[in-house]
Design a protein that fits this description.
single chain, alpha+beta, Sulfite Reductase Hemoprotein, domain 2, Sulfite Reductase Hemoprotein, domain 1, 16 helices, binds protoporphyrin IX containing FE, binds iron/sulfur cluster
């Protein structure tokens, strides 16, 4: 079905709807190759928008270069795939790439004439795709980076994330004209690290009592999202038993995308076009009824499944023993920015040190990486090799949890620079404010929250600041105390317009205050930063 053909188009809808109505985003594929011949100047304004459907996005200052977002479902990569991306970064992207908060890899500096070869590398040589990486369609499906690996995993999902991603891709025009972007997440992580509460639709590990036993399955949430109007997703209070997961999850994710696609009332205002507004307005019961109508059968209702219980802020950094007895090594990547040489080296190290045939690299939404399936005896040599390429596995807790959005370097919406600032903040904090647990610091270049400042321990949002001597400099509003789980809270603002060259002092002071005054729980663990903030007056 082509949404463009079936929707009730109204000329009063947002300008982007007119572009999609004139021609589907997916129809631009052949034109990318044509434009590669005819050059940047020949690209029509509307096709710049349509090219986003294949992850191709103009980069600031819109003078001939593009960023290219490569979709990596669940952040799972084989070494040859990462090596191919590294080589691409070397050839066309000035030698670097960014791991993103949706487990993608984003390259910059590509020219339109580079795409035929770059597409060949990603699609054919790496076996990856970029369809629906940007645009009004289902974005990369995020997952727990240790799904199916972690020793405490009670439910295994196998290739489910990849299958649902391929379902969206193969659906083509069935999913290519949604009112706006659509963010799915699928995992059964016992820590709910995959942030189910901030996605449009997500699964999370749930349990119910069955004949005196605890039965594990998946719950489903819908309607989460950040940007400048953050919403937590609402649980649909359903339980998908383990045996039903392979069939039911793709069906649910297809039907939820259809509900969103058909909500034409969202297509009038771009700032009000996300699924979260529909769920907030109509309520989760309405949404569940609608979902069941489309599925043609009821789901198992369970009013006790309200939250991902006990969600904590982690992306599992560190070295851990997997369920199969091999080990997984977390590799903190400052701000997600990796040189091409580091990407290629990570691929080589995975091949060299992981068990033969099982080498895997996983990416996390904290912009970090993992090397999976490493035999214990290879750990020391792998760790030395990681340090030698500038990515030590045992970097400070600050380095593990600091993330930064694209910012002014490449983003047209940014009001401040972010990645360099984040690295300077990191250097200062590592030297001057020791901590013993990771605190998520998010450096975000505008209120859109691409680095998720609303759920950070300490979130910064860029804002221009005018100094007393009238100089205009980059500054930040400072927010603290975001958390997910059973008592979710968005971070609250505690300082406005802190000049960029002072903001590291603010963060260091907050960290010292926490370290000196936090409580220790009955389990001996320190209180979460967010809980400390919640009980501390402004
Ligand atoms: C109205 C415009 C935009 C809004 C509301 C927005 C919002 C967001 C949000 C909330 C995320 C959080 C990640 C998540 O969903 O888990 C995100 C991710 C991201 N955004 Fe934006 N964004 C916008 C435009 C842009 C632009 C113009 C750029 C860069 C040029 C950008 C770059 C990114 C990147 C790199 C990610 C990481 C996730 C991925 O791979 O998809 N965003 N965005
Ligand atoms: S948060 Fe703002 S500045 Fe940062 S990448 Fe997103 S849109 Fe750009």
């Amino acid at each position: 079905m082509n949404a463009g053909e079936t929707m009730n188009f109204d000329p009063k809808m947002a300008p982007q709807e007119h572009v999609k109505q004139a021609r589907d985003g997916l129809a631009v594929w052949d034109d990318i190759f044509r434009y590669a011949q005819s050059g940047f100047a020949s690209i029509s304004k509307d096709d710049f928008l349509r090219m986003r459907w294949f992850g191709i996005y103009q980069q600031r200052p819109n003078e001939g270069h593009f960023m290219w977002r490569i979709k990596i479902p669940g952040g799972r990569l084989r070494p040859h795939q990462l090596r191919e991306i590294g080589r691409l970064a070397e050839r066309y992207a000035r030698g670097f790439g960014d791991i993103t908060t949706r487990q993608d890899i984003q390259l910059h500096w590509l020219r339109i004439e580079d795409f035929p070869d770059a597409i060949d590398a990603v699609y054919r040589r790496a076996g990856l795709y970029t369809q629906f990486a940007c645009g009004d369609c289902p974005r990369n499906i995020t997952s727990c980076p240790l799904d199916d690996l972690a020793a405490d995993q009670v439910l295994l999902l196998g290739d489910l994330v990849q299958r649902v991603s391929d379902m969206y891709r193969d659906g083509g025009t069935e999913f290519s004209n949604l009112p706006r972007k659509f963010k799915p997440s699928i995992a059964a992580c016992p820590l709910h690290c995959h942030l189910p509460q901030i996605n449009c639709v997500s699964t999370f590990l749930a349990a119910r009592q069955s004949g005196g036993n605890r039965e594990y399955g998946l719950g489903v949430m819908a309607g989460g999202g950040l940007s400048d109007k953050p919403h937590f997703a609402q649980s649909l209070r359903v339980f998908i038993p383990a045996a039903d997961i392979p069939r039911a999850v793709p069906a649910v994710f297809r039907a939820v995308a259809h509900i969103f696609r058909d909500a034409d009332q969202l297509r009038y205002k771009r700032g009000h076009a996300r699924l979260k507004f529909l769920v907030a307005e109509r309520g989760w019961q309405w949404f569940r009824d609608e979902l069941e109508k489309r599925l043609g059968q009821p789901l198992a209702h369970d009013d006790a499944i309200v939250w991902p219980e006990g969600a904590v802020a982690t992306d599992h950094m560190g070295i851990q023993r997997q369920r199969n007895g091999l080990y997984c090594v977390g590799v903190p990547v400052p701000c997600g920015r990796c040189t091409a040489a580091q990407m290629i080296a990570l691929a080589d190290l995975a091949e060299r040190f992981a068990a033969a045939g099982d080498a895997e690299i996983r990416l996390s939404f904290r912009q970090n990486a993992f090397i999976a399936n490493v035999p214990q005896e290879n750990l020391p040599a792998l760790c030395d090799a990681l340090a030698a390429i500038g990515l030590p596995h045992d970097a400070s807790p600050w380095r593990q949890a600091l993330i930064a959005c694209t910012g002014r370097q490449f983003c047209n919406l940014a009001v401040v620079e972010t990645k360099d600032r984040a690295r300077a903040i990191l250097d200062y904090l590592e030297k001057n404010a020791p901590i013993d647990v990771p605190l998520m610091v998010s450096v975000t270049g505008c209120p859109n929250s691409c680095a998720q400042h609303h759920i950070a321990d300490i979130g910064l949002t860029g804002i221009p600041v005018v100094l007393p001597d009238k100089r205009k400099v980059d500054g930040f509003n400072v927010l603290v105390g975001g958390r997910l789980g059973a008592e979710p809270r968005f971070a609250r603002e505690i300082a406005r317009k802190v000049p960029g060259d002072r903001v590291h002092h603010t963060i260091a002071a907050l960290a010292r205050f926490y370290m000196a005054n936090r409580r220790t729980g009955p389990d001996g663990r320190p209180e979460l930063f967010a809980d400390f903030v919640a009980r501390t007056p402004d």
